[in-house]
Here is the input.
Amino acid sequence: MTLGLIAGGGDLPRAVAESVRAEGRGVFVVALRGMCGDWASDFPNTMVALGEPGHALKALKNAGATEVLLAGRVERPKFSELKLDAKGVMVLPRVIAAARQGDDALLRVLTNLFESEGFRAVGVAEAAPGLVAREGALGRLVPNEDHKADIARAFAIVRALGALDVGQAAAVCEGLALAVEAAEGTDAMIARIAQLRDNLRGTRDKKRGVLVKALKPTQDAKTDMPVIGAETVRRAAEVGLGGIALEAGKSLIVDKRAVAAEADRLGLFVVGVLP
Amino acid sequence: MTLGLIAGGGDLPRAVAESVRAEGRGVFVVALRGMCGDWASDFPNTMVALGEPGHALKALKNAGATEVLLAGRVERPKFSELKLDAKGVMVLPRVIAAARQGDDALLRVLTNLFESEGFRAVGVAEAAPGLVAREGALGRLVPNEDHKADIARAFAIVRALGALDVGQAAAVCEGLALAVEAAEGTDAMIARIAQLRDNLRGTRDKKRGVLVKALKPTQDAKTDMPVIGAETVRRAAEVGLGGIALEAGKSLIVDKRAVAAEADRLGLFVVGVLP
Here is the structure.
């Protein structure tokens, strides 16, 4: 049973593809042009532009895929510049209307499109359960009491923002909200913590504060769970954060062994919690 | 009846001092060291460090002030490095406990300190009513229907964030949350919109999206109303925003004439709304 993987940017799609292949299943990658990395050539694949859903559907059917999974970052197109195939022309009005309501509505429309063509839409947790964050610490360090209070506050912030479809992440240091994610994405959000005066935040030598990343209540866990990897740990360490907390069961970790090793090397905790 | 103005950073304290003086009242400025600008020397003043509330109280009493107003940005001190006078030693534990709960709690403790010494704490709206944003547009332009939808969404975001004492501002462009303010402050938040790909946002030539700044529900309008000035209009124009919306009656505009002129020159609207 082949999985059709519609792959955007970032490390998640490759991690999913490798995890699915490691379990002996076939994977066919629909690589989104300009977003999906070169790794797609390690798998049977086709490349499509965002305006070509007809092309994607045909390739998936030819490959014998019965399930589809959307994974990775998809950048909002300039709708006026999209090159459309016939199917694209048909669905564009719905897509534009959904885009105005936010990223989550946009993803739901795309998922519905594949389902209406007879595919079953699956989530990462189902296709690649090894990537899902579990409760407890990964690596040697655990949050202290200050960290726990900051984790609770950051979860409250992410939940409030998520309910409005704003972002997935926030950083808090001893009660102060250091940074909150909107359209810039988590990496840029973490990086700008370095701009804050260093009595508000930790440093590489004396780490303080936490990063929390969590599913938005409006988000479909099938298409868009929060993801971290070893690079996220390095970025958090760089700006002096003491650790990272994720919602257990509802977020993903690419290469858990590498994340644990990097957390131990840099002196951060990485923890899955049930908030 | 002399007003004691405890002045932090930014343009607000000076605007308040000049507005109060223009109405024929006396002003005595307690300039916070390292935060308040040089303008304080235009008024009877004393300079105090954050750890010297005893010094501030004495100077205010000597100056015959009966009312006090805290205005402007106050940066969180490194409590371990504060040089304290006797009064500072007494109140420090309360201040540190409040600081852990956020900026608003911190300001409330400071206000309470002055009230317990017999001063009446007043707000900017009372001391300098000319600075308060009124309903309607300042300048020639008004928001269109797209802008109005973005204003409503940005107010919802700011309100949710404000309830958690995170920040006062957000920028939204055609439904997409471009940026949300936390510890970095509004200027830095606006500036980073320039980093987003230009199909997500407007440009100087074709402006799109709005900035909204509003009082946090946890905030005391006496001490910490949101403020904009001509510089805010220039920054918003620079990153391609179409306009700025404020909550009428609960936000401040430094130099309304200059703000209207700058908005007209750059092609933005500035509007007070009752959300």
